[in-house]
Amino acid sequence: MIKVGIIGATGYAGGELVRILAGHKDAQIVWYGSRSYIDREYADIYQNMFQIVEGSCLDDNMEALAEKADVIFTATPQGFCASMISGEMLGRTKVIDLSADFRIKDVPTYEKWYGIEHKSPQFVEEAVYGLCEVNREAVKSARLVANPGCYPTCSFLSVYPLAKEGMIDMSTLIIDAKSGTSGAGRGAKVDNLYCEVNENIKAYGVAGHRHTPEIEEQLGLAANEQVLLNFTPHLVPMNRGILVTAYASLKQNVTYEEVKAVYDKYYDGEKFVRVLKKDICPQTRWVEGSNYVDVNFKIDERTGRIIMMGAMDNLVKGAAGQAVQNMNLMFGLPEDEGLALVPLFP
Amino acid sequence: MIKVGIIGATGYAGGELVRILAGHKDAQIVWYGSRSYIDREYADIYQNMFQIVEGSCLDDNMEALAEKADVIFTATPQGFCASMISGEMLGRTKVIDLSADFRIKDVPTYEKWYGIEHKSPQFVEEAVYGLCEVNREAVKSARLVANPGCYPTCSFLSVYPLAKEGMIDMSTLIIDAKSGTSGAGRGAKVDNLYCEVNENIKAYGVAGHRHTPEIEEQLGLAANEQVLLNFTPHLVPMNRGILVTAYASLKQNVTYEEVKAVYDKYYDGEKFVRVLKKDICPQTRWVEGSNYVDVNFKIDERTGRIIMMGAMDNLVKGAAGQAVQNMNLMFGLPEDEGLALVPLFP
Amino acid sequence: MIKVGIIGATGYAGGELVRILAGHKDAQIVWYGSRSYIDREYADIYQNMFQIVEGSCLDDNMEALAEKADVIFTATPQGFCASMISGEMLGRTKVIDLSADFRIKDVPTYEKWYGIEHKSPQFVEEAVYGLCEVNREAVKSARLVANPGCYPTCSFLSVYPLAKEGMIDMSTLIIDAKSGTSGAGRGAKVDNLYCEVNENIKAYGVAGHRHTPEIEEQLGLAANEQVLLNFTPHLVPMNRGILVTAYASLKQNVTYEEVKAVYDKYYDGEKFVRVLKKDICPQTRWVEGSNYVDVNFKIDERTGRIIMMGAMDNLVKGAAGQAVQNMNLMFGLPEDEGLALVPLFP
Amino acid sequence: MIKVGIIGATGYAGGELVRILAGHKDAQIVWYGSRSYIDREYADIYQNMFQIVEGSCLDDNMEALAEKADVIFTATPQGFCASMISGEMLGRTKVIDLSADFRIKDVPTYEKWYGIEHKSPQFVEEAVYGLCEVNREAVKSARLVANPGCYPTCSFLSVYPLAKEGMIDMSTLIIDAKSGTSGAGRGAKVDNLYCEVNENIKAYGVAGHRHTPEIEEQLGLAANEQVLLNFTPHLVPMNRGILVTAYASLKQNVTYEEVKAVYDKYYDGEKFVRVLKKDICPQTRWVEGSNYVDVNFKIDERTGRIIMMGAMDNLVKGAAGQAVQNMNLMFGLPEDEGLALVPLFP
């Protein structure tokens, strides 16, 4: 039984870790870290866990936790994990960081986009970018995994096969993304009040969202060239889900079948990536509560562009589910252990 | 492996049966009955099931199905099951009817409220009202189970302990219920369009909703007296969930602890009924996607009344989950097999 | 041109005052009071008012404002208006208080339910309870109007004719109310975040909500007897709207026509109260953005009860619209000036 | 008093015409055409209009209507207006067609994208594309106005100044649009049921939506070159609102101030187009219920692209509001008569 500690257990991603791990037969949570709710029963905060989860919230003392846990999930604001981690800690326990601290290999880029100094640059190289579909082998032996961001996961997996195969002109890539509101976190802010989000859609972070360099770095690795792209996130009045609509010019004329074959080449054996049938557009409702990413594409012969689409639950494949998928790999368990979550509809 | 057939597999309750049974290790669906979508792949209709469920939709030939299935779920409009069922069929297969056909023991009452002739009154007495928490033993040996209605399940379980113990004046009972929109079904009606339901709340079926006699009959059996009550359902802009707020006069002064002890007496061993802590009101978000009913109460000394509350997912405990719970009992399986569904939040 | 000052102009009720007064041809806002946003342009906070409203936010100095304004609206937390008001101020300007400070004539009752000391009990008797349909003449000559609460307005108007005519047993009255989330205000609280409210319904303040004594006092005046009732509010995932479902025993058998005649007697000349046709249930969507209250009733012969229903926009007739209606009366304007707001659907 | 007839008065766009005209002091509706609800009182269908609108629904006999009305609004499916219109009719009455029949000047393009034969190509040239901000003078003298589509209105106005001034490379233009569900109409379809739309976002009509050629034609006229672009609409779980996010490469480096000056040049005198302040992104909540289009832009120096954004109420400026704006121009009234609608928030 893997002993799991969670720092940030009462945020939405933390809560989702608790939900998923409650159904994981080889893992046991030993630490519900939550600075805001110390000493309160966890199930008093997340009443869905009443009579399912026992235990009260503890502080965010990651060092003490490292002595108890086989693996620590940090579902914390950027900067926290980098400021706490140490070689000694990594000698004792594995760390899966759900924040951005170790996602970007280029430290100055991290520091510029996040506006903070990186406190542990010495671990950046070691950290494995935990997108299992791409870095599966590296994850298996990792001590420190940087769990990918929600937007980058969905954006990357929608575009990856064509970037990797060099079929699209990467300089024309535009990613227009839409997210449910749980992605904004559980902090008490006026902007995230029900009446502010409901009956509204807006773009935010236009030409400046922090997930941009992460997407660019990963797609750059795939395409083997430097990538600059436009990424525009939007806030949608729903709880969960990310939809990505990406546009790029095709380098040459291709048929549906040719492109389909490329997607299949990369995703045929992937349990959590579903390449939909022809002309079926991904929709967030079909993946809600599950670890699936649904992807598909449409060729527009008139403009010579291809529209790539992906849908995903931002809290599962975009956060907690992917983190558990990484944990499974790191501990030699079946990759889908605890993740056989059937999407909930309606 | 239990062979399961579903008639009405593409309605919301049918879809939920498919979702739950996809995670049930001792059951296998052999028939996706759907008159509207014959020959279409099931996962083309419910895309959440893509790569999870194989198989195409078949017709609603219950007789043919009875030769293949160990159990048939009828998630159909009222009248269908009663018009199809036969002694021969019940000799071959078990039937769990999610419609109202066999819920009400008094056939004239059924015919009056539903406005149709009952085609199989001869099976009404045999049919077991499948509220497991009350009729567990009878369900185990039943051939025909009448799966309770969504409103009746939540209403009954909220009020049951006090009715049974004679603590409330049943003639004063008023049940004000609120339901998400999946309860209205998947039929294409203007009234259920997004723009008609969103940003709106309304009462409907005031003083005439068909679930009224079902609630009255069951609470009458519990209280051992004839019960007439007011039941008012409301339509709420959300997908899932029923909330019941029930009011009754207490027969005499009681303390919180006394009432709590009564609830505990009936529900302590019940896995799917959670009696919440003092002053915590049930909320539908804490049970979404799960088979739980959360109940609690509040004594109002000023008026001498008690307010009883319950929250439930109408598609799970209010339909498909309870149906699977019944199936488990009928086949000697653990009652919660396939029902360890952790509520999804947010 | 009436000079209007608003204290609390950036809350939802304050914002609605600004919206309504923007279309009022005889009023002009001279003071946008908002402690949180001093010196910021009002239209920067409420972008809907961009290029419609000029002016920046000022503080909540009600004394200074009293020298500039013909009327002050206080859309502030309870206690504020009572702590600021003075005879000198009332000599200079009229005050319409949207808080609870002057609604309840019995000061100890106010202090008990609101848990604060009343700072200006000397003005309680003078204050007119601003329910125009009942106190029209008194409002016309008032210096200080207590604008009714949202729940009390809708509850009272739904029940009033039958209470006044003595047709219902007031001791059996139960009011089950449902409100959109704007009623919870614009404060940054976790409980009011989008993801906490969406896909959820809950009761709150059960047997203890502060609007209870206000409803009891007003219905007591109408019925000419002391009234104790159950009032249970619920939070609904929508922006605007209150729906009231009220239950009471009829004192004797009555027909639909008899009850309808009673409602018509009180509301026939009332522009903002619409008695719906037989069997049409009030719905919040039909009044959104308007000053209407839609009411109707249903007799349940089986139980001898009558179900009274009302629907209203909590920010308009439940707050800002009613406040402007009061202002119109106080200044001798047509009662519906600026209030010819057609409900917005969908 | 202008006598107005509406064909299609019980669809959402028709209903919005009724709402707006109810507050228009120089217009009077004489014909509520609705094939589905003939002889039923209009306010029985749209209960928000109870006691506001008198009159029952009539059929869709446009010829008979032409003898009674000064102007006819056809809020009907494509093909209807083209099949009914005649020179004789246009000699008697003005026609504002809210369908696509007369929007596209190139008839074969219309026939290809809409898949129907055009029944009145002889009126296509005469018809004025009713985007008042661009074709104001032509509208004033028009007998037949083609009211622009919802997506085209918002897309065009967001991009127009830069297209007109030749600042962007039109071959790189990508328009990613998001719409509330009222745009899908009031037809009873499973896809538009509450539970199918709620908690979901999806793209639809990818690379094939019928509004594409309309946008291309109008932007082509502005840019004075042929335009081919990608247009992708998405369905958002909200009632009203369209948000457009458009991407294009800048032809040369420009500053914020330079671009702002261009937007101001075209929109400074336009009452219904609001160019927002720097870095403020348009949001649909700020325009709900009003005739405003809010536009803004963001230069991304990293990629050399500009992101152009617009937000609008699809039923007002995207349909009924713009139609009334056109009517006002055609009858010599102030352009904003009846359109001083303050956006409703929350």
From TrEMBL, chains A, B, C, D:
<dbReference type="GO" id="GO:0051287">
    <property type="term" value="F:NAD binding"/>
</dbReference>
<dbReference type="Pfam" id="PF01118">
    <property type="entry name" value="Semialdhyde_dh"/>
</dbReference>
<dbReference type="GO" id="GO:0006526">
    <property type="term" value="P:L-arginine biosynthetic process"/>
</dbReference>
<dbReference type="GO" id="GO:0005737">
    <property type="term" value="C:cytoplasm"/>
</dbReference>
<comment type="similarity">
    <text>Belongs to the NAGSA dehydrogenase family. Type 1 subfamily.</text>
</comment>
<feature type="domain" description="Semialdehyde dehydrogenase NAD-binding">
    <location>
        <begin position="3"/>
        <end position="142"/>
    </location>
</feature>
<dbReference type="InterPro" id="IPR058924">
    <property type="entry name" value="AGPR_dimerisation_dom"/>
</dbReference>
<keyword id="KW-0521">NADP</keyword>
<keyword id="KW-0055">Arginine biosynthesis</keyword>
<keyword id="KW-0560">Oxidoreductase</keyword>
<comment type="function">
    <text>Catalyzes the NADPH-dependent reduction of N-acetyl-5-glutamyl phosphate to yield N-acetyl-L-glutamate 5-semialdehyde.</text>
</comment>
<dbReference type="Pfam" id="PF22698">
    <property type="entry name" value="Semialdhyde_dhC_1"/>
</dbReference>
<dbReference type="InterPro" id="IPR050085">
    <property type="entry name" value="AGPR"/>
</dbReference>
<dbReference type="InterPro" id="IPR036291">
    <property type="entry name" value="NAD(P)-bd_dom_sf"/>
</dbReference>
<dbReference type="GO" id="GO:0070401">
    <property type="term" value="F:NADP+ binding"/>
</dbReference>
<keyword id="KW-0028">Amino-acid biosynthesis</keyword>
<protein>
    <recommendedName>
        <fullName>N-acetyl-gamma-glutamyl-phosphate reductase</fullName>
        <ecNumber>1.2.1.38</ecNumber>
    </recommendedName>
</protein>
<keyword id="KW-0963">Cytoplasm</keyword>
<dbReference type="InterPro" id="IPR000534">
    <property type="entry name" value="Semialdehyde_DH_NAD-bd"/>
</dbReference>
<dbReference type="InterPro" id="IPR000706">
    <property type="entry name" value="AGPR_type-1"/>
</dbReference>
<dbReference type="InterPro" id="IPR023013">
    <property type="entry name" value="AGPR_AS"/>
</dbReference>
<comment type="pathway">
    <text>Amino-acid biosynthesis; L-arginine biosynthesis; N(2)-acetyl-L-ornithine from L-glutamate: step 3/4.</text>
</comment>
<dbReference type="GO" id="GO:0003942">
    <property type="term" value="F:N-acetyl-gamma-glutamyl-phosphate reductase activity"/>
</dbReference>
<feature type="active site">
    <location>
        <position position="150"/>
    </location>
</feature>
